[in-house]
Specification:
2 domains, cell membrane, ten-stranded mixed sheet, single chain, alpha+beta, 56% helix, MacB_PCD
Length: 415
């Protein structure tokens, strides 16, 4: 066993010495591998980053959250708009019936929104504000934190008190660094008292953020606009209990909604049950296609690099033919010669792969610190790059190494 390790070590040093003596040729040889690994791992890292961002958005919505709406989020190839256009909007009557009859839910809220509003405080104003209105369980169906203040009380929600919760960007625009709680703002001709400010969240892939929104109780919104009108996007948001699967919650919700709308068995739904996983599943299909594209583009570069490595290894065998003959005449076994050239080819590819990974890492630093976008370069992608490099080295170097190991020592010395 010790002899085998010693021979492997000698083979490694022979290979390292050959690479060191031909620096320019070594660098040119590994360029193809470097570009290929860089392309593949860059694509994988970009896809992982997008997938993580998407998962954060889904987590913010809640993995067990369903939205009862008129229109579906995803349409098929043949878009049957005529089926959806005559559907009824979710109503307060639907909401009250669902609230009384659903059992597997953590919370249920009726929501409506009015965009493009102006919010004023003294001489300060913020434009293009999205005004959201929600029933009392809004805080149970959406995930958010407060940087200041609180949520509506039960009494404020029931009576439709003129209270409001501001997004972080709205509070900053109106009050600067001052406290917002207790101050009165004006929007849609009404004075509203600020009771809370949402914690700053930032934008995500699904556009879910409270930063530029304000929230009022649904019973207050009824006095400002028709919350059941289609132009205000009425919807019913349902969040299932943590210990109940989404399929079970969805099945119960669909059954109760069909019962409320008195739909006959076999009749199509006149409502849509949307969920964040619909979007994430669609994007997963896209991510798979991007991954395949990365393999194809990077694969061509690696293929060219592999042929380059094989060509250089044949040249290397030719240059060292007499040395191989001397080694064999002194007792070197065939596998020693084979390992010597195999290590050289694998070392070349590993160097190229390491350089490609280093370039990807530098890209992640640029995006993280200059563009403020965190790119994921995880251990899985690093191991993938190293594995691909080693495999290409083994495949590219095998035939040149095998031909070297089969040389006749007398003929080799005479060459």
């Amino acid at each position: 066993m010790m002899m085998i390790f010693r021979l492997i070590g000698e083979s490694f040093w022979f290979a390292a010495d050959a690479l060191r003596q031909n620096k320019l040729r070594t660098m040119l040889s590994l360029l193809g591998i470097t570009i290929g690994i860089f392309t593949i791992i860059s694509v994988f890292s970009a896809v992982d980053t997008l997938r993580n961002k998407l998962q954060e958005s889904v987590d913010k919505l809640g993995s067990n959250t369903l939205f009862v709406q008129k229109w579906p989020w995803i349409f098929g190839d043949n878009y049957p708009w005529w089926k959806y256009v005559n559907r009824p909007q979710p109503s307060m009557k639907d909401f009250m019936a669902l609230k009384d009859r659903l059992e597997n839910i953590e919370g249920i809220a009726f929501e409506a929104s009015s965009g493009g509003r102006i919010v004023k405080y003294r001489s300060n104003s913020v434009e293009n504000v999205n005004l959201n209105a929600g029933s009392q369980d809004y805080n149970k169906t959406w995930n958010f934190d407060f940087q200041e203040g609180r949520y509506f009380t039960e009494g404020e929600g029931q009576s439709g008190s003129p209270v409001v919760i501001l997004g972080a960007d709205i509070a900053e625009g109106l009050f600067g660094g001052e406290s917002a709680v207790g101050k009165q703002i004006k929007t849609m001709g009404r004075r509203l008292t600020v009771v809370g400010v949402f914690k700053k969240e930032g934008e995500d892939m699904l556009g879910v953020s409270q930063d530029k929104n304000i929230l009022i109780p649904i019973n207050l919104a009824k006095s400002l606009f028709d919350v059941e009108n289609e132009r205000y996007g009425p919807q019913i948001t349902v969040r299932g209990k943590e210990n109940v699967g989404q399929e079970e919650v969805e099945s119960e919700l669909r059954g109760v909604m069909r019962s409320i709308h008195r739909l006959k068995p076999g009749a199509e739904d006149d409502f849509s049950l949307n969920k964040a996983t619909i979007l994430s599943n669609q994007l997963d299909v896209m991510f798979k296609m991007v991954n395949i594209a990365g393999w194809v583009i990077g694969g061509f570069s690696i293929l060219v690099g592999g042929f380059g490595i094989a060509n250089i290894m044949f040249v290397s065998v030719k240059e060292r033919t007499n040395i191989i003959g001397i080694q064999k005449s002194l007792g070197a076994k065939n596998y020693f010669i084979l390992l010597q050239f195999m290590f050289e080819a694998i070392a070349l590819c590993l160097l190229g792969g390491a350089l490609g990974l280093f370039l990807v890492y530098m890209i992640t630093l640029v995006f993280t610190y200059l563009v403020d976008v965190k790119i994921v370069l995880d251990l899985k992608n690093i191991l993938t790059g190293i594995t691909i490099s080693a495999l290409i080295g083994a495949i590219s170097g095998f035939w040149p190494a095998y031909s070297a190991s089969k040389l006749d020592p007398v003929e080799a010395i005479r060459s």
